[in-house]
Every structure is written in structure tokens, then in C-alpha cells.
């Protein structure tokens, strides 16, 4: 992921007016703070100019006149200016950084909340790693621009102007002679910034690359060793390593050249001041104080010039990041919410699910569901059976409107799903997916899923009803047991029971259960079956079934084949019918090499 | 000398030429830098006395000329010391990687991948900062202080005393603040990775969030984390925001002292104006090295801490020891694979939970042997040991009568190849992955093993067939496809024993059956060891070794064992029932 991110980091233009205006809207809530910050920057610039000025006054005044007592005044003034500068600079930094951090906080919240609203199709197309980058790294890349890009640019400009004006005022001739080094300073700084930044970028890319390499080789170290490939791996590593070293050495070169060049330019200006200014002093046209002030002013040129060249780079990367972030913010969910947020309109349709000639394709004309029609009566338990790719999971996704379909109608509680508010619909229709996803936290956290309206008692009751408390290792404070990332530390059976408990706690009127295919030991199997009975009670249930017992206990079985409903009936009816269901059944039992006793849901896991 | 310092010594010794030159150049740079104020001083004194512009021109040229030389030296200072530090970084990382490749099971069980990578990246970087900028700035400060301070004392000792007082405080202050800021910075980074982990998890589980309508709850959670992150950032800014302004206030205070006391002495006629200005310049030259001194101390502390962490890896020896070269025996191509009274535990031999207890068996060339047993019985441990991921006691594991301890790992692994439980592919083309064991993989051979592993049909549908890149930057394979690809990879290796450690768990029974029949047909003298709990697979084996809690409790063919009604029969009956119920 990281590598991809760095490769994504292509350099665009440094300034895009439309993007900039949009970025600035994030500063609008803090405009008072921005104004305060700019005011402080103005003060800092003034104080920057004041320092050398005081030195000049002291040298030309009391020192030249040998007035020791008069000197004290200037010294105290200098102390005052220094302390003021410290205080003002600190205040300005706090305010500016606060603005930047707040703007980022707002933007990050907006991006995250927006992503949560997007539909499943979007998530299918965008890997988690990329979205994560948008929320975290891309937003952080904008922090530089919010906190040091937009606001402090004023400070640098004020300071430069202040110094130039002060120098001209002190001695216009010497000022212009000194300014002749400016193009050199600006040019050198500029070239260095561009070179150093691109070298730095290259280094970062290569660091990410070599880290990814390490990650992979260490994860697969047993394979490398098992196939005696250590030497090859070492050689490959040294290739990456050498690439990184060379990129580092290139950037060392730029630094090695740049700092001496800046020092040299400094010496040049000093030489100019000694030669031209010294001449002026000899002729009595200039004072020593002016000379001293000039030496100090030239010294203060460097930092605002460096900052200003840096702004270019900051803008450039901010534009690239903001373009990606705004593109994400402009992506709209394809699932349009309907107005219905209440339950069924009439009692007779409560708990009813109807498919009417539903056609659905994820891409173009590649129909996953073709003209599907069926009705599940309130309180009925229906098993959906069919080979992998028959369309079972798609049917489940359509009922809760995770995806939209192209033709036909789906009614839940007698209301078209497109008229429902998706959130209300999903509260009405509970889901257990095939691969149970658990979050890191405790078992109780995973049952509650953050809903604070669920009391501890309700969570505990739900866990009891599905028999989670009877699982081994669940004695005592079972619900407080820690769950690792993606449910590590829990067995497949335990994870399923947790998912069941979620549904029991939420208590939806309609349940869609996508049974897990993975095997569990027979004791766990028995627990799951008991929990299923508890789960199904008092609900309409649509089960994508893989287990014999589940299929048999269903009121009705719907057999799907290549996106179509091919058979409907009870187990006995379907076996007697000798159609697809019978064939699926035979195939699976045949593969087992045992007499035909099993019934099949899928041919291949 | 502590082991962590002896770790870095040879690297510095290797590039001692760079370092010696670096020191010479640093000294020269400083010497030149110190002369400039003296020239400035004489120039100013001359101006005061009245001199010609021609003479001033000479002074100006001198200043520029000296700066030019200083610049050149400065350039070489970086080109030597920093240059060497990057080369040391390169060597150190290469050596670390090579060393890690020699380590085995116990090490990787103990140290998480993320931890190893942190050491390879940030710890090596900390060490580099110590040997590069650390040495450079440290020496620079010492020379600068060593020359400038005496010079200042010679110029005017009373003024020197006044102005040198704040300098040690400056160094101490930089050091302390740097440490605190570093801690706060680490806290921010930690919070940031927690925030990322939370977002990552939410996005990975987005389906659950949506179907259970928990978007609002997730928003609240995120908002809390987000605010936390904001507060930590501000916590650092409150400290760091004041750091540089305070530094400049402190350094100006030193200048101020010169201005006041020096100014008074100029007025009193005790020193000349030139000396006064030269003094100011020396002082400003000392300030930065003093700030850097605090920084160098922090670099030293962090660098040695990182060296310790690196030494921890370098000091780790592989558990499987290699015999001295004169006692190495080479293995015959074909031989019996034998375990003799093997007892093994993961945490050191003998003590702790024993994963295997007194295991003995002989597998003859060409046999197909299955190893079965309930979860945790030690099946996979046998696979680990056969691939020599862990050390076994002497005389307990043999090939063709030769003890494993008398052979090299390379030789042993040429005879025996394992298809592990968790299929692992590198993010590279399928062709490169399958051809891992050989230098060049011929197309015919690829097609052949692809056919054997029932992979060709799947691959035909991939965008670039066998040249398709898999993994993070390529297409994602299904679990079954991954397992079949790793099988193909193992088939390419010309090993005599193929161990399949539950290698078909994500492949359906029928396909597994097909693959195994094809393997049987072509294998001849090659031995297959199947670690599995699928009954249909167990039926195929010439012999089944049944394990329970690390002990071999039953052995024979499926039919014999079923008839005998022992532990295997009881387990297999339950398993068959389970299969019937669950694999549907």
C-alpha cells in the first residue's frame, strides 16, 4: 500500500486556483484566528527589522560618543525587543498551528464521514489501502499547507520588505550594492530546494520499496530457506539497498554543495560591505553603526528566502493531495435514499419479502440475476441453494440494498426497497454474512457494535440465547474476552455465534443468513444448530444454506442455477423431482464415496 | 566493550579513511572560519584609522578567498563523513538481511515481522545519524570550542567570561527539550497508527457496519480518536513552537552581553572596535555548535539504544547448527526418511510443553504416507522439523541413515520439500513464483507442473497468463489457487520427498483427488507425505501415521485401522460424519 501511495505522488502544478479556493474554505471558520496570526506576523517582521537598528543606534550613539550610561537605554530596548519577539513568535506559532490542525481535523472528519456514506460498489472498486491513504496521509500532507503555507507566507514577505526598506533608508548606495547578491542567494536556494526535494522524494519512494521488500521476504522466509533461495534473495536485497544508498548519496551531494554556497554568498556580501561601506566610513559618508546593521540585515535575508522557496514545494504537494481528496469527496453514493423510514404500511405485509422479475448485473450486460421472482411469507424460513456463482449472495445484498438492481421490484414489508431509507431498511432486515467480520475489542463490543442504546443486560441476554456462554473458554467474564484484529483468537464457530448474537441483540423482523462453509468440530456444530433455532424464531428467514440440517429444517427450498430460480419445494419434493437439486446432492455424496445421504449447497467451497 | 559498540566498530574501521580525512577537513574548515574575524578586525581598525580603498579591496578579497576555501572544505566534510555513514548504512542493512536469512523458527516465532522491519529501517537510520551527522557535529563542536574559546580569552578574557556563561545552558537546554519533544512526537506517531488501524478496520468491515446500521457509532468513535490526535499534536506544538524562538532569544542574549560589556569597554578605551566586532563574530560562530552539542548527545543516546536493538538480532544464532565442514556428509538422492525416538518442544529441548513425544517411523522411497490426527496433535510440527525450521536432538532424524545434524541445510532441503499450510506467494509473476527453486524455468516444465497442480485452466483466464503479477500489486488469487500455485512451485524443485501440509484445505475434494492421482502416476521413487484430515485423502495412502497429543498412537492402512477399531477408527468415524454434514 505504502509503495502505491508514493508512486501515486506524481507532481502536478504548484497552483490551481479552483483547488486553492476550495482549500481556503476550510480556513473560513477560523478567519478571526487567521487575522490574528497575520497581525502577529506583521509585528514579528517589525521586530526583526528593529534589532539591527538598535545595534546601529548604540554604536553610532553612546559607543561612538563614549557614553556608557546612554548605552544602557539601548541595551534595555534590545532586551525588550528580543523578549517581545520571542513572545509574539510563540503566540503566532500556536495560533497558526492550531488553525492548521483544526482545519485538518475538519477535513479528516468530512472525508471519513463521506466514505462511510458511500455504497458497496464503491468499496468493491477501491481497495481499503487506498481509502486509508486518503483519510490519513493525504489529509496530513495538507497540514503543512494549512499551518505553514498560507499564513506564514505573509510573514516572510513582510520581513523581506521590512529589511529592504530599512537598508535603503539607512544607506541607499550600500543597500543597492548589497542587493546585488540577492539574485545569487535566491537562485542558489531555489535550485537547491528543487533538487533536494526531488532527491528526498526519490529516497522516500525507495525506502517504502525496500520496506515492502523486507516485509515480504520475512513473511515468506520459510519458503526462501526451504527452497535454498537465500543467495538470490540477498542479491535482490542488495539491488534495492544500493538503489537507496545511491539516492541518499545524491542528496548528500546537494547538501554538501548548498551550505558552502550560502556561506560563500554570505562572505561575498560581507566583503562588499567592508569594501564599499568601509570606503564610505573613511570618507565620512557613513557611520560604523550603519555598517554593523548591514552585516546583520544581510544575515536575516536568508531565512525568509528559504521559506518562500519551500512554499512552492508545499503548494505543489498540497495540490496533488487535495485533488485526490476532493475527488473522493465529489464521489456520490449511487444508492439514493427513499423517504420511508417507518415499518410496514399494513399488517398483512409485515415480514414479507417479494422479488418481482429482478434482473441484476454488476457490470454491463453480465447478468448475475435473471428474472428472479419469489415470495417469502411472513414468518417463513426459506433456504436458497445453488452452486457457487448461482447468485445467492447477490440476492441477499439486494434485499438490504447494498447494491442496486436494473430491472424488476423488490418489496420488503410490502414497500419497494428503493422507497426505503436504507438505514431503516437495514434495521428491519438483519444480516449474518458468510465470513464473519469481527473488530478488535471484546466480545461484548462486537455484539454491541458501538450502539450505546443496547444495555449490558441486553448484550448478555443475546449472548446467552445463542449459547456463547456455553462455549469452552467462555466461563466467567466471557463477554469481556479480547478479540484480536479481524477476530483472531476466536475459532470459526465462536465467530459465527458472535454474529448470531449481534442479530439477536438488534432483533430485526427479517433475517438473511449466509451460512459459513468452513468446517467446525461436531460439538460446535451442535451448538450452532441450537443457536440457529433460537435465531430463526419469530422472524422471516432467508438462509443461503450449506448445511444439511439447515436445509432440511427450512419450510421451503429455492434452487438457483446460473442466476435463475429453477426449482422450489421441500427437500422430499425436490429429491423426488430429480432435477438440479437432486444432481447437486448426488455429486457431492459421490465425491465423498459414501452412499447418497448428504444434500448439497455448493459443489466447491 | 559492550557488544553493541563492538558491532559498529568494524564498519567504522572499514571506512576509516573517510573518517580520518573528514576530521582533517573539519579542523581545516574551523581554522579558516576562525581567521575571518581576525581579518575583519584589522580591516575595521584600519577603517577607523583611515586607510585606502585599495587596502580595503585586499581585505574584501581575503574574506571571499577564505570563504571559498572554507566552502570547499565544508563540502569535503560532508562528502567524507556523511558519505561514509550512508555506506555503513548500506553495509549494515545488507548484513542484517543476510543474517536474518540464516535464522530459523525460534527467532521468527519470537520477533514479529513489524518489529524486524522497524529495526531494519529506523534503528539503522538512528545508527547512521550517530556515525554520520553525530560524529561530524560532535567533532565540529569540540574543535570550534577548543579554538574559539581560547582565542576569545586571548583577545579579552574578561569579555570572554561574560559571554561564555550562557553557552553550556544552551547545550543543556537543547538536549532536554529535544528529549521531551521526541517523546511527544512518538506519542503522536503512535496515536496516528492507532487512528489508521481503526480506519482500516472500519473500512475492511464496512459491510457489517452498513448491514447493522452502525455508521453513526463509527463516526462518533472516529471523532474521538481524531480529537485525541489533534490534542496530542497541539501538545507537541506548545513545546516545540517555543523552542526556536527561545533559542534565538537565548543566543541573542549572548550577543547582548557582548554589546553591553564590550561596548562599555570600548567606551572606556580598554579594547578597540575591531576586537569588539571580531568577538561578536566568534560568539555567533560558537552558538550553533553549542546548540548542536545538545543534539549530538541525543543522537548518541538514541543511536546506542538502536545499536543494542540491532545487536539483539546479530547476536541471535540459528537454532539449527551447521556441522564443521570436514564432518559434513552428503546425502544420497534416494533414501529412507526416518525419525527415531524424537521428542521435541518449541521452547527449548526437553522442558516445557512437548509437541512431539518419542516419535519413530521409517518412510521408504516411493511410499505415500499420510499423517493424521486431531488439531494440535503435532502434525504440522513434523512438517516444520522435516524442513528443519527447528533443531532436533542428535540421531533422531535421518535420511538414508545419515543424521540430519551431519548434513548442510541446503543438501537436506534439496531432498525434502514442503508445501506449507499457509500458501505464500511473493508479489511477482506466477512464473517467477513457481520457478523459485530453479534458475530458469522452461516453458514446458511450467506447463507440466501447472497441469499437475490443476492450475493451467485458472491461469488461462488471467490477463497475462503465467506472467500475471500476483499479490499486493497484482491480482488477488483465491485460497485454492494460491495453494495450487505453491504446489506447482514445490513440484519444480527436484526433491525426493514432497510433504503436503494440509495443502489442499481450500481446494475442493474432487480437484484434490485429481491432483493426487496424477502425482501418484508420475512419482515413482518419489515419496509423498500427506498431512491431512480428509478421509478421502487418507484412503489413498499406503500407510497412515496417526498422532494424538504428540504421540504416535496408530499406524497402518485406512482399511486395516478401521477394522482394528483403535484411536484412528474412532477419530475417522467422527471426521467422516463431520465431512458429510459440513463440507456440503
Concise structural overview:
The complex is a heterodimer of chains A (605) and B (584). Chain A is an alpha/beta fold and 605 residues long.
Shape of chain A: elongated
What level of helicity do the residues of chain B show? 55-70%
SSE order of chain B, one letter for each helix or strand = HHHHHHHHHEEEHEEHEHHHHEHEHEEHH
- For the biggest β-sheet of chain B, the strand order reads 6-7-8-3-9-10
Number of helices of chain A: 22
- Overall 3D geometry of chain B? elongated
> What is the average per-residue confidence, as pLDDT of chain B, rounded to a whole number?
81
Q: Largest sheet of chain B at a glance? A: 6 strands, mixed
Question: Helical percent range of chain A?
Answer: 55-70%
Query: Radius of gyration of chain A in whole Å, from Cα?
Result: 36 Å
Radius of gyration of chain B: 36 Å
Kindly estimate the percentage of residues of chain B that lie in beta strands according to DSSP: 5-15%
Helix-strand layout with pairing:
The complex is a heterodimer of chains A (605) and B (584).
Chain A: H1 2-8, H2 17-24, H3 31-63, H4 68-117, H5 120-125, H6 128-141, H7 143-149, H8 152-170, H9 172-179, H10 182-219, H11 221-226, H12 230-282, H13 288-330, E1 353-361, E2 367-376, E3 381-385, H14 392-399, E4 407-412, E5 415-416, H15 422-428, E6 429-432, E7 441-442, H16 443-448, H17 456-465, E8 482-483, H18 492-506, E9 510-514, H19 522-536, E10 540-544, H20 548-553, E11 556-561, E12 564-569, H21 571-577, H22 580-592
Parallel strand pairs in A: 3-10, 3-11, 6-9, 9-10
Antiparallel strand pairs in A: 1-2, 1-4, 4-5, 7-8, 11-12
Chain B: H1 3-14, H2 16-49, H3 53-102, H4 105-110, H5 113-164, H6 166-204, H7 206-211, H8 215-267, H9 273-314, E1 337-345, E2 354-363, E3 368-372, H10 379-386, E4 397-399, E5 402-403, H11 409-415, E6 416-419, H12 430-434, H13 443-452, H14 456-460, H15 479-492, E7 497-501, H16 509-523, E8 527-531, H17 535-540, E9 543-548, E10 551-556, H18 558-564, H19 567-582
Parallel strand pairs in B: 3-8, 3-9, 6-7, 7-8
Antiparallel strand pairs in B: 1-2, 1-4, 4-5, 9-10
Helix pairs in contact in B: 1-9, 2-3, 2-5, 2-9, 3-5, 5-8, 5-9, 6-8, 6-9, 8-9, 13-15, 18-19
Amino acid at each position: 500500500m505504502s509503495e502505491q501511495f508514493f508512486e501515486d505522488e506524481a507532481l502536478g502544478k504548484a497552483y490551481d486556483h479552483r483547488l486553492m479556493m476550495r482549500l481556503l474554505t476550510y480556513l473560513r471558520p477560523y478567519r478571526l484566528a487567521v487575522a490574528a496570526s497575520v497581525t502577529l506576523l506583521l509585528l514579528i517582521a517589525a521586530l526583526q527589522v528593529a534589532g539591527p537598528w538598535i545595534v546601529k543606534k548604540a554604536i553610532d550613539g553612546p559607543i561612538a560618543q563614549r557614553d556608557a550610561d546612554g548605552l544602557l537605554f539601548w541595551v534595555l530596548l534590545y532586551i525588550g525587543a528580543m523578549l517581545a519577539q520571542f513572545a509574539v513568535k510563540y503566540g503566532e506559532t500556536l495560533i497558526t498551528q492550531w488553525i492548521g490542525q483544526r482545519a485538518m481535523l475538519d477535513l479528516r472528519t468530512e472525508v471519513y464521514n463521506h466514505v462511510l456514506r458511500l455504497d458497496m460498489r464503491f468499496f468493491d472498486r477501491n481497495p481499503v489501502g487506498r481509502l486509508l491513504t486518503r483519510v490519513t496521509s493525504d489529509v496530513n500532507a495538507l497540514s503543512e499547507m494549512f499551518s505553514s503555507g498560507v499564513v506564514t507566507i505573509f510573514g516572510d514577505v513582510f520581513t523581506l520588505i521590512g529589511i529592504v526598506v530599512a537598508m535603503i533608508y539607512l544607506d541607499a548606495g550600500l543597500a543597492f550594492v548589497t542587493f546585488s547578491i540577492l539574485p545569487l542567494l535566491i537562485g542558489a536556494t531555489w535550485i537547491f530546494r528543487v533538487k533536494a526535494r526531488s532527491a528526498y522524494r526519490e529516497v522516500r519512494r525507495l525506502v517504502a520499496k525496500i520496506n515492502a521488500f523486507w516485509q515480504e521476504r520475512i513473511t515468506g522466509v520459510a519458503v526462501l530457506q526451504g527452497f535454498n533461495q537465500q543467495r538470490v534473495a540477498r542479491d535482490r536485497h542488495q539491488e534495492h539497498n544500493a538503489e537507496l544508498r545511491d539516492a541518499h548519496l545524491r542528496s548528500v551531494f546537494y547538501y554538501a554543495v548548498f551550505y558552502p554556497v550560502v556561506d560563500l554568498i554570505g562572505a561575498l556580501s560581507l566583503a562588499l560591505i567592508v569594501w564599499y561601506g568601509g570606503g564610505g566610513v573613511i570618507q565620512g559618508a557613513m557611520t560604523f553603526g550603519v555598517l554593523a546593521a548591514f552585516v546583520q540585515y544581510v544575515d536575516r535575508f536568508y531565512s525568509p528566502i528559504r521559506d518562500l522557496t519551500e512554499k512552492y514545494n508545499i503548494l505543489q504537494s498540497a495540490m496533488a493531495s487535495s485533488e485526490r481528496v476532493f475527488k473522493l469527496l465529489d464521489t456520490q453514493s449511487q444508492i439514493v435514499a427513499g423517504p420511508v423510514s417507518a415499518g410496514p404500511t399494513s399488517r398483512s405485509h409485515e415480514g414479507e419479502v417479494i422479488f418481482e422479475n429482478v434482473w441484476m448485473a454488476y457490470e454491463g450486460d453480465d447478468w448475475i440475476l435473471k428474472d428472479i421472482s419469489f415470495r417469502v411469507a411472513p414468518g417463513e424460513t426459506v433456504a436458497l441453494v445453488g452452486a457457487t456463482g448461482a447468485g445467492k449472495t447477490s440476492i441477499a445484498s439486494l434485499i438490504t440494498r447494498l447494491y442496486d438492481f436494473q430491472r424488476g421490484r423488490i418489496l420488503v414489508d410490502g414497500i419497494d426497497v428503493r422507497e426505503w431509507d436504507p438505514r431503516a431498511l437495514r434495521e428491519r432486515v438483519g444480516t449474518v454474512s458468510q465470513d464473519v467480520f469481527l473488530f478488535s475489542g471484546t466480545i461484548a463490543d462486537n455484539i454491541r457494535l458501538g450502539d450505546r442504546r443496547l444495555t449490558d443486560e441486553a448484550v448478555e441476554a443475546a449472548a446467552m440465547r445463542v449459547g456463547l456462554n456455553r462455549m469452552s473458554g467462555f466461563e466467567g467474564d466471557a463477554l469481556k474476552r479480547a478479540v484480536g484484529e479481524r477476530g483472531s483468537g476466536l475459532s470459526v464457530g465462536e465467530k459465527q455465534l458472535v454474529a448470531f448474537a449481534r442479530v439477536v441483540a438488534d432483533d430485526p423482523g427479517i433475517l438473511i443468513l449466509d451460512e459459513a462453509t468452513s468446517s467446525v468440530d461436531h460439538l460446535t456444530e451442535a451448538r450452532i444448530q441450537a443457536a440457529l433455532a433460537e435465531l430463526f424464531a419469530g422472524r422471516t428467514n432467508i438462509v443461503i444454506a450449506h448445511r444439511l440440517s439447515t436445509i432440511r429444517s427450512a419450510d421451503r427450498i429455492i434452487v438457483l442455477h446460473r442466476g435463475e430460480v429453477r426449482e422450489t419445494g421441500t427437500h422430499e419434493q425436490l429429491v423426488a423431482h430429480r432435477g438440479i437439486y437432486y444432481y447437486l446432492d448426488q455429486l457431492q455424496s459421490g465425491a465423498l464415496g459414501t452412499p447418497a445421504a448428504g444434500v448439497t449447497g455448493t459443489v466447491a467451497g | 566493550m559492550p557488544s553493541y559498540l563492538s558491532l559498529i566498530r568494524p564498519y567504522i574501521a572499514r571506512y576509516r579513511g573517510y573518517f580520518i580525512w573528514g576530521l582533517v577537513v573539519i579542523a581545516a574548515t574551523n581554522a579558516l572560519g576562525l581567521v575571518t574575524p581576525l581579518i575583519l578586525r584589522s580591516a575595521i581598525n584600519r577603517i577607523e584609522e583611515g586607510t585606502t580603498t585599495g587596502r580595503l579591496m585586499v581585505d574584501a578579497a581575503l574574506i571571499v578567498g577564505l570563504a571559498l576555501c572554507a566552502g570547499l572544505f565544508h563540502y569535503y566534510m560532508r562528502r567524507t563523513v556523511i558519505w561514509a555513514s550512508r555506506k555503513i548504512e548500506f553495509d549494515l542493512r545488507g548484513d542484517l538481511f543476510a543474517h536474518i536469512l540464516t535464522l530459523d523458527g525460534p527467532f521468527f516465532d519470537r520477533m514479529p515481522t513489524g518489529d524486524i522491519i522497524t529495526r531494519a529501517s529506523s534503528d539503522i537510520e538512528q545508527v547512521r545519524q550517530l556515525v554520520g551527522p553525530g560524529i561530524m557535529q560532535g567533532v565540529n563542536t569540540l574543535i570550534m570550542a577548543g579554538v574559539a574559546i581560547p582565542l576569545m580569552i586571548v583577545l579579552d578574557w574578561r569579555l570572554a567570561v561574560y559571554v561564555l556563561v550562557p553557552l553550556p545552558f544552551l547545550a543543556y537546554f537543547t538536549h532536554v527539550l529535544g528529549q521531551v519533544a521526541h517523546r511527544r512526537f512518538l506519542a503522536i506517531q503512535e496515536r496516528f497508527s492507532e487512528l489508521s488501524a481503526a480506519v482500516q478496520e472500519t473500512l475492511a468491515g464496512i459491510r457489517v457496519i452498513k448491514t447493522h446500521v452502525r455508521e453513526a457509532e463509527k463516526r462518533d468513535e472516529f471523532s474521538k480518536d481524531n480529537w485525541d490526535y489533534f490534542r496530542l499534536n497541539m501538545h507537541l506544538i506548545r513545546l516545540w513552537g517555543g523552542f526556536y524562538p527561545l533559542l534565538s532569544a537565548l543566543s541573542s542574549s549572548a550577543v547582548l552581553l557582548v554589546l553591553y560589556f564590550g561596548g562599555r569597554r570600548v567606551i572606556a578605551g580598554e579594547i578597540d572596535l575591531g576586537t569588539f566586532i571580531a568577538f561578536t563574530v566568534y560568539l555567533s560562530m560558537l552558538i550553533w555548535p553549542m546548540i548542536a552539542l545538545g543534539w549530538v548527545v541525543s543522537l548518541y543516546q538514541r543511536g546506542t539504544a538502536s545499536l543494542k536493538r540491532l545487536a539483539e538480532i546479530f547476536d541471535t544464532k540459528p537454532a539449527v547448527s551447521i556441522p564443521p565442514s570436514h564432518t559434513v556428509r552428503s546425502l544420497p538422492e534416494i533414501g529412507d526418511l526416518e525419525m527415531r525416538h524424537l521428542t521435541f518442544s518449541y521452547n527449548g529441548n526437553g522442558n516445557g510443553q512437548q509437541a512431539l513425544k518419542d516419535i519413530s517411523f521409517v518412510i521408504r522411497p516411493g511410499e505415500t504416507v499420510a499423517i493424521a490426527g486431531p488439531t494440535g496433535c503435532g502434525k504440522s510440527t513434523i512438517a516444520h522439523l522435516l524442513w528443519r525450521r527447528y533443531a532436533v536432538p542428535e540421531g533422531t532424524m535421518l535420511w538414508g541413515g545419515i543424521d540430519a545434524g551431519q548434513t548442510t541445510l541446503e543438501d537436506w532441503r534439496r531432498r525434502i520439500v514442503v508445501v506449507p499450510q499457509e500458501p505464500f506467494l511473493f508479489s511477482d509473476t506466477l512464473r517467477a513464483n513457481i520457478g523459485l527453486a530453479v534458475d530458469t524455468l522452461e516453458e514446458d516444465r511450467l506447463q507440466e507442473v501447472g497441469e499437475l497442480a490443476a492450475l493451467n485452466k485458472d491461469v488461462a483466464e488471467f490477463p497475462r497468463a503465467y506472467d500475471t503479477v500476483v499479490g499486493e500489486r497484482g491480482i488477488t488469487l483465491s485460497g485454492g489457487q494460491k495453494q495450487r500455485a505453491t504446489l506447482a512451485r514445490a513440484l519444480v524443485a527436484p526433491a525426493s520427498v514432497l510433504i503436503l501440509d494440509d495443502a489442499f484445505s481450500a481446494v475442493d475434494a474432487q480437484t484434490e483427488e485429481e491432483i493426487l492421482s496424477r502425482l501418484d502416476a508420475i512419482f515413482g521413487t518419489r515419496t509423498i507425505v500427506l498431512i491431512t484430515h480428509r478421509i478421502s485423502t487418507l484412503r489413498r495412502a499406503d500407510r497412515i501415521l496417526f498422532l494424538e497429543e504428540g504421540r504416535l498412537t496408530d499406524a497402518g492402512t485406512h482399511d486395516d485401522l478401521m477394522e482394528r477399531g483403535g484411536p484412528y477408527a474412532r477419530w475417522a468415524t467422527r471426521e467422516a460424519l463431520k465431512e458429510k454434514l459440513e463440507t456440503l
